[in-house]
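Q: Protein A?
A:
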Amino acid sequence: MRRTGAVLLALAAALALAGGAQAGKVRNGGFERGDLRGWQVRALPDAECGSWTVYGGDAVPGLPSPPRGDRAAAASPPAECLSGAHILSRVVKLKKGSKHKLSFRLAYDNGYEFFLTPGSLEPEPAGSQQIRVDVLRAGAPLLSVNPNHILKRVYVTRHDAPLRRGYRRVTANLSKLAGKRVRLRFAAVANRGPLAVGLDAVRIASRKR
């Protein structure tokens, strides 16, 4: 009996070590609920020009099917809208004393000739055709691109980036932000042509240092 107990303890210890890296608390990061619960959505000038939604299959023109599971999130304003900014965000707490790695899958279809990335997320007046992902201070203004508010710039479309791209995995090391409350912000802004953006499998893997 003692030997069996020792074996079980050793097995439990091995499993604990193997499970040191676990997903962070990005609930509904795969959007499999079929909604955006837990996320904050903002559309400019208003939701009549589209917003972030959840889709499945080939329901969004220009975007492939969700890469993980049956659903993903998408920002795809109607063609009749001349300009719009679509922000999807949420606040998360990064546990102190741990290493943290953000990952997600991103796809897009740009209907304009190239990307334009001015120093603003406002849809007007400057020419803007961009996708960007940032980690902000939790209390920073939602549309801010002030370096003092941005803790980590994760993804920004380049002027000469491919106009269409299927889902690809993007990662960022957030370990230096351990102990902080931060806001994950996914932004799509377009005022030169259609821009569809897909997002899936948002997670934070955390491991004790």
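Q: Protein B?
A:
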Amino acid sequence: MPVDRRFILNLQGKDYITYEGLLDAAHKKGLTGIETELISYNGDNGQTIFKAIAKTENQSFTGYGDADFSNVNSMIQKHIIRMAETRAKARALRDLTNIGMAAIEELGGDDTDYTTNVSPAYNENTVISFGKYKGQTLVEVLEKDRGYIEYLSNKATNEEIRKICAELLGRNQLSTPLQ
């Protein structure tokens, strides 16, 4: 089962899946629940270990996740327990879905703002998942209804979609063929 590209982020040339994407793929594979258990916690250094079990009707997949003050950024440190739990769940979900790429939530350890360095895998061939053109690519919509792409370039809630629509409009205005 291919992963929906809207859940893939690229950081320095390497693809990562979002936790949301893992959940989406797991539900498509019949996820019935996730159980978590705190294995250990050390308040001095924040070292936290969680166990997660992702279940389908017939199978279960176990993953362990850890977090401590050295492998999360400073904004996450006060949420160290939840981060360890999220990492454990992500690992169990990766096994359930047979997704080999790491989850973006597994990164950390410095104060890099990944939101500015990460490029969602959106492009002009992104399929719209909402509205009257649901299921069509941005290029197909542009050919039918330039006004809708103009609307999206200003009003879409997803910033990347706004940028791509604006780029498409700029290319189209210059009569440059889309690649």
